[in-house]
Amino acid sequence: MRLAFMGTPEFAVPSLDALVAAGHELVAVYTQPPRPANRGKKLTPSAVQTRAEEFGLPVRSPLSLRTAEAQAEFAALDLDAAIVAAYGLILPQAVLDAPKFGCLNVHGSLLPRWRGAAPVQRAILAGDRTTGVMVMQMEAGLDTGPVRATTEIEIGSKTTGELTAELAELGAELMVIVLQDMAAHPAIAQSGEGITYAAKIDKAETRIDFLQPAEVVERQIRAFNPAPGAWFEYEGERYRILEAQIFPAQPQKAGEVSDDCLTIACGTDAIRPTLIQRAGKPAMPTADLLRGKPIAQGTMLA
Prior knowledge:
- 25% of the residues lie in helices and 26% in strands.
- By secondary structure, the protein is of the alpha/beta class.
- The protein folds into two domains: 2-198, Rossmann fold; 203-292, Methionyl-tRNA Fmet Formyltransferase, Chain A, domain 2 (Roll).
- The strands form four sheets. The protein has a seven-stranded mixed sheet.
- The longest helix is centred in the middle third of the chain and has 21 residues, at 160-180.
- The radius of gyration is 22 Å and the shape is elongated.
């Protein structure tokens, strides 16, 4: 099929890879413009741009698709379909309508649950048992379009990083299957029940509230791994907890360190970080950190 691909972060790369491997004709790759990154704030191309250039594919990075010029350029591609995966720009109706088969989106949730920007993080935070990835026929509403195919998986103890990588691969496979036989994968309207919205993560959510039960804190840690990281403050410095275990605990003040292994009391039970990161330092096992920066039993953390 004659396709355009529209995506930006690492999540979208497996879909681009799969479309190329399947032999589709990729006539354009749309992605967000290079952004400042790292300490030097050097302009850095998106993961999708980097991969597209490796394939020798033409890359377009419009700031908006709302202009008549951008829409005319898109329509002139004469596409069978546009494939979208975490692109980051709203597609106007003129863009949605231009390809023969419209625009198909790889979305990392079991729609209509977790429509929106942060479906993987929200599923983990909510304690969902399962999530999945869907190929959705896009329409003007926020992730409201009919669904063509679904793959469901267990969340278990996975972090956002692990779950996102798995969903990206599964979504790529699913998209190729749908494109092989569109008629065998008709667009079916989403249920009107069970709708939830995955709002963008606010920085205030990433600070750990030890008044919460340990299981809630542990989910927060997994949801914000690898970024932005769930954190607490000690002696004016931020510590990001990247991995932790839950331990049964006798009632203590929430936030109190109960031993020399940095076991921290929560609203119920306790957590023990196993991978931790001080501000400006690499992540390391908690035992290694405590050898150089001990946090004494009885310390109150917040």
